[in-house]
Structure formats: C-alpha cells, structure tokens
Amino acid sequence: MIDTAVEFSGVTKRYKYFTLDQIDLKLPTGYIMGFVGANGAGKSTTLRILMGLVHQDAGSVKVLGHAMPEDQATAKREIGFVSEDMRLYGAATLEWHMRFVRSIYARWDNGYANDLLRRFDLKAQQKVKGMSHGQRVKAALMLALARRPRLLVLDEPTTGLDPIARREVLGELMAVLADEERTVLFSSHNTLEVEQISDQITFIDRGRILESSDKEAFLDRWRRLRLVLPPNTKLPGLRGIVKVAGSSRLPVITTNRFEPTMMAACTEVGVSVQAVDVMTLEEIFIASVQSQREGEAL
Amino acid sequence: MNIAMVCRLIWKDWYLNKAGILASLIGGVATLALVAAMHASQVALIMGMIVLVTILIGMGAMVMISAASERRQMTLPFVMSLPISYWEYTISKIAGGFLIFFALWVPLVAAIVATILLTPGIPHGLIPFVLIMAVEILMTTCLITVVSVTTESHGWTVAVAQLGAIGLNGIGWSIVRLPQIGGLMRSATVRWSGTATALLMAELALIVLMIAFTFFVQARKRDFI
Fold first, then answer.
1. For residue B84, which residues of chain A lie inside 8 Å, CB to CB?
2. Assembly ipTM
C-alpha cells in the first residue's frame, strides 16, 4: 500500500492572467480532503493537473505512485473523476454508459452499481438527455464509484444540485469513508459540506495554498477572542493573530495558533477575556483568505 | 499504446454515430438505384452525383466534427477521465473517424463505379474523374479532421466543412476543364492519363501531410480540457 495517494511538489502552471504558484500538497491514503477555494482560486486547475489533463510547467506530481502526466493512462485505471463541467453522452442511455465503463475497468462492481442506481433513484434505460442536472451528476458519480477506484477526485460535484440531491450525494460520499483504502479529494466552495465530510482541509486562493492540515487540528487552532482592555493597556503579544477587529477597548482578535495559555497571558497583563468563540470553517476560510490578501496588499 | 482502449473509443464513436451512418448508407444506395432506374439520363446522373457528394461530405463532416463536439458538449472530461493518454485519444478520433467514413465511402464509391460500368449509356471514361473526386472528398474530410481535432472548435470546424463543400465544386469544375481529364470523360472505355495519376498522388500526399500535421500539433499541446 502506498502511504501517500497524492503528492504535489513545487507545481507551477502559468496562464496569461492566472498562475498556479508552487503548489505543495500531500494527501495520505485513506483520507478525505476538502479542497476549498473561491471561484477562480485554482481548484480545477490543480485537479486537472492531478488527472494529467493539464501539464504543469514546473514541479512534480505523483498520484498513487505514478508520475503525472507521463503515467496518466495507468494511474487513471485506479482513479474515479467527476467534475462539475463533465457531461455524459446525451443520446445514449445510462445502461450504455455502464456497459461502456464496465468494459474498461476490471474492478467494476455490478452489484454496487445497481445498488447506487436504486439509492440515487436512477433509471438505467433512461437516455442521459432526458435527465435533470441532479440525475446527471448522480449518474456520473455512480459511474465513477462503481469502478471501485482507489482514489476519487471530485471537482465541485454538488454545484447546481438541489438540497435533496446534494444530501444524497454527500451521504454516498460519507459511505465511501467506510472503505479505509479509498482516498477522496473533493473540491468545493461550499465550506459546510466540506466540513461535513472531510478529515483533511486545504485552502487555496489566487493560485496559492494557504493552509493544509487535519480538520480537527485546523478547527482547534482557529479561535476568536473577545477581550476587554482597561484604559492605557496594550494588547498582549499573542501568537498567530490574523485579524484585530472591534474597538480599542473591546477588541476582537482572530488567531490561527490558539492555545489555552493565551487566556492566562491576557489575564497577566490585566486584559480580561470575555469569550473564546469557536469558528466555523466558513469563518476560518474567509479570515484566512482576507489575511493572505491583506498581506499581499501590504 | 493501449490498443484495446483505442478500439473501445472507436466503438463508442461508431455507436454514437450509427444512426447517421445507416441513414447515409441507405440514402446513397437509394440514390444510385434511382439513377440506374432512370436509365442514367443526364439529369438523373447530375442529380445523383450532387446527392451522393452531399451525403459523403455531410457524413464526413458529421463524423469528423466529433472531436470538436466532445468539447462543446462537455463530454471530453468524461472521456479523458478514462485510462487513456491524449495521444491515444487523438489516434482514436482520427482512426475511428476514418473507419466510420470508409464504411460509407468505400461501398458508395464502389457502387458508383459499378453503376457506371453496369448501366448502359454511361461512358466508362467518367471513372478517372469519379475516383479523383472521391479522393478529393476524402481529402476534404481529412481537412475537417485536422481542424476539428487540433482546434476542438465547433465554429472553425463547421466553417471549414462549408468551405470544403464549396471548394469541392470549384475543384471539380477546374478538373473537368483539364483536357486530359475532361476530354476523356465521354470515352466508352476507361482512359487513365498521367494528369489523373498526378492528381490522385497529390491528393493522397496531402492527406498524409494533414494527418502528420494533426499529430504534430497534438503532441505539442499541454492543456487538454
């Protein structure tokens, strides 16, 4: 078994108006990584490089031990890929697609495919052109899952889905977690769904990786501290401050290096800690992106 | 190269185009039957040739445009998610396109030649001209392929297909005016001239060059979606 399913080292891709800059990324086998970024942040470009569909200008990419893009044909035998801009053949039925994909993948699981058909409420005999957007996404997902890939790469798969369809898709992805051998890399700008299903989080913005770590550690590190400063008292030197808001007497500090000792440090200099707020992934993402962009502006 | 995978992609294109292939084949055979039934009168011959050329060019364009259609219909990410390289994808598009086109082109050209040979009243001297024009249609199809595969642009491919159809008429007209071709067309026997051979060789050489150019361009591409 390979310990690292995906490894990017110094990957750079330059376009006229966008550069994916020195991407370093590691996804251990058996984990689900949520790849979060705003529109145009570089998520799709990164995943396309991973699939060998776009060639990097510099750096190296290894997927399931295969160098990309050179070994893409071999690597893709073990990868299931679904992207938001992927369509199936409208004139053909879902059954035809299933036969076609089954003829290519030796690990195709017919029982699982039929199970997914039922769970997703899909009709194999239906032509793709007669399906709703939600059904098409579920069909593409079914075709990717039933080939039993070791790595599942999903580029914004839930974009445009209604809440019911989104719940079904996310539910199936969570079921995939049961298989510890399977690794999932899943991009989205919806932080709520990433928070629900991922155990690794990576933020990307303007072509650069901002943060990448274990979800729990990630959520534990970020806190918002509501302080009360007595007159003529300065803020204590706390670690990892990314934002200071509020008034000079009632500052609200956002830190990405929170430790319980911070509260003692505040009390020592006469600053009282009114509250320590846990932050949602969305709040963390926004704070992280804003802090990075403000840093760039400086 | 993964030949099995290339064959599956060709089979896929064949399956997705099967209605068009069948309709074109039936249309072509019906046209030839009508020409023969009308005792190859001049009107029947001219009308028949126009219909057959239209069917062949239309069929060629329909098949060869599929590379551009994959991008336009957003099926390219699905195909490229399969265990293939872009090189294999290109081979499947070119080889598959030509196989499908040949499935129609070969029987129709053979049927046209057979109609000329077997129908009383049609001069056999027409055969060199018919073969030159048949290869010319193959060359136009090849041009559409080059544009479709290398640009993946539906607009450019349609524009080239239309220009190709117009150009074909012009080329046909020019060839007829060559004494060594047009002058021998009414002959009762097949009279193969040096000019006819040179024209055929030039067409075949251009086809080879266009295919080589397609692979050259594809090999230099770095972004496939």
1. 73, 76
2. 0.87
